[in-house]
Amino acid sequence: MSNTVLITGAAGWLGGLLAEALVSDPKTLNVRLILADIVEPKAPKSAKAVTLKADLTAKEPIDALFKTELGIPDTIYCLHGIMSRGSEDNFDLGLKVNVDSIRLMLQAAREFGAKSPIKFIFTSSLAVYGGPLPHTVTPDTIATPEGAYGMGKLTSELLVNEYSRRGFIDGRIIRLPTIVVRPGVPSAATSAFISGVIREPLKGIECLCPIGDSIDSPELDLPSWVASPETTIKNFVAAKHVPAEKFLSHTRVVCLPGFTATVREELQALEKVGGKKALDLVKFKDDPINRRIVSSWPPRFDNSYPLSLGFIVDEGGMEPIVRQFQKDIEAGIA
Questions:
Q1: Each residue of 18-57: pLDDT tens digit?
Q2: Where is the signal peptide (predicted)?
Q3: What Å distances lie between residue 160 and 119, 139, 253, CA to CA?
Q4: What does the mean pLDDT of the chain come to?
Q5: Domain containing 102: what range?
Q6: What's the pLDDT score for residue 287?
């Protein structure tokens, strides 16, 4: 096994964390990384890596990812995409990146992996869900997205499943919870505020919460399905090691484990960790569009199936996550 891994979207925050995690993964010995994104990614210092600036919406640059000095990858992490609010605001761009480019990636993986199917790990989202939902989502719950981002992700999921069914690839589809707390600047994701109401106040910066008009608003009881960055990255790596025969026979979809937290519970954790001075930096201006989209996403999932595959879940709710982010700020890494 060559342990050559291609990561698209590698210049992003998660892509960078994943590259570092693979380098230190004891099950991925002597890993070699092909890192690609719309801007040239940075490689881990200790890694044997090729970094590429590439237009991932065109066939020629995608094919070039399979022709580097490191050869054909045996595993692909397909992380690139246009985020939720960005997809909603620019429908055509969302389709081009979240559907068309994934199809091109799949076709390239099929062609270059004809002798030995490539593991193709596709990051999807709980945004594939919408409409009337059961109290708790299970692997049998039908996905009916109510936004362009979820529609694009679900379309690409179907492609990954079909390419897997035909033996073109060894697909693994991981639907991510909302990851909190994300460092850096706010993204174009509809869920960006879920990190923002923790990140900015702990850094002494005012932030705007688009849910509710005050700290007492009932809208703050809006629940979300969340996971920490640390747990999410461990689950990314774990996705590479799940034996193909352990997945359900009819689908490669796995909803990664998470837990339910309301906006109010987030703010309570913020106050416990950062004090009232941090909480007072959160300002409110209700955004009905944002609230509608986030409200359409299911806040509760049955973790049984992913846990049976070896994935892990956060323990202790929001407070440990907020405390870890505070430590990251103090260490200068957030």
A1: 999 999 999 999 999 999 999 999 999 989 999 999 999 9
A2: 1-19
A3: 11, 17, 9
A4: 95
A5: 4-177+227-255
A6: 93
1 pLDDT more than 60: no
| Residue 251: how many other CB atoms lie within 10 Å | 16
Catalytic residue among 77, 129, 149, 163: 149
Question: What integer pLDDT is reported at residue 188 of this predicted model?
Answer: 67
Closest CA to 145 of 136, 161, 135, 156: 156
Q: Which two tokens stand for residue 265?
A: 């519970």
CA 164 and chain centroid, separation: 21
Structure tokens that stand for 211 in this block: 């849910």
pLDDT at 238 over 90: yes
Main-chain dihedrals φ then ψ at residue 122, nearest 5 degrees = -105, 125
What's the CATH code of the domain at 126?
3.40.50.720
Where do we find the tokens 């964390």? 17
Assigned domain for 74 exists:
yes
Alpha helices in the chain (DSSP H): 13-23, 59-64, 84-89, 91-95, 101-112, 148-165, 192-202, 229-241, 263-279, 288-295, 304-308, 318-330
pLDDT tens-digit readout, 74-110: 999 999 999 877 888 899 999 999 999 999 999 999 9
Choose among 154, 216, 210: nearest CA to 186. 210
Contact yes or no for 28/12 (Cβ under 8 A) = no
Length of the chain: 334
Q: For the chain, how many structural domains are there in total? A: 1
153-183 per-residue burial string, b: 16 or more CB within 10 A, e: under 16: bbbbbebbbebbeeebbbbbbbbbbbbbbbe
Residues 166, 61: contact at Cβ < 8 Å? no
Q: Which residue has the tokens 């919406």?
A: 57
Helix (H) or strand (E) holding 311: none
Q: Does the active-site annotation cover 149?
A: yes
The answer as to whether 8 is a domain residue is yes
Residue 190, in any domain of the structure: no
